UniProtKB/TrEMBL annotation:
It comes from the Eukaryota. The keyword Plastid does not apply. Keywords: Metal-binding. The keyword Metal-binding applies. One of its GO terms (molecular function) is metal ion binding. This is CYHR1 protein. GO terms for cellular component: nucleus.
Length: 139
């Protein structure tokens, strides 16, 4: 049963749940649907992360730019020099690359991959681009 809820509602749910009365075939159909949903989610994640693996992602109006330190090589003394650690934060910004006639409102975020050990807390950012304000802050 895919039900999720607070523990104090479990008894009520168990009394009303129809899953224990389903046949094996009905349960297999439910599991197949769950598998298909999971496959679609994986395809979406794979598409998103293949796009994010590019150095620059250009759309018609906006470009993605990651922030990088000058030194990419991690060293044994990384505890003393945090900029050389492989546990440093990832920062990025979006840049409006062309002129616009009207403000361009944009919402954006980064997501963590299903098999990734990069820790990303997804937050949706909003920004209104204009010719005078053409770069977001680093996020």
């Amino acid at each position: 049963c895919p039900w999720q809820g607070p523990y104090h509602e479990l008894t009520v749910h168990e009394a009303e749940c129809t899953h224990p009365t389903k046949t094996g075939n009905e349960l297999m159909e439910i599991l197949d649907e769950m598998d298909q949903t999971r496959k679609k989610e994986m395809q979406l994640y794979n598409s998103i992360f293949s796009l994010l693996s590019f150095e620059k992602i250009g759309y018609t109006e906006v470009q993605f730019r990651p922030y990088r330190t000058d030194d990419f090589i991690t060293r044994l003394d990384s505890e003393r020099t945090p900029t050389l650690s492989c546990k440093r934060p990832l920062s990025f910004q979006l840049i409006l690359k062309s002129k616009v006639n009207a403000p361009l409102e944009c919402s954006f975020l980064l997501l963590e991959g299903p098999y990734d050990d990069v820790q990303i807390r997804p937050v949706i950012y909003h920004f209104v681009f204009s010719n005078e304000s053409n770069e977001t802050d680093y996020m």
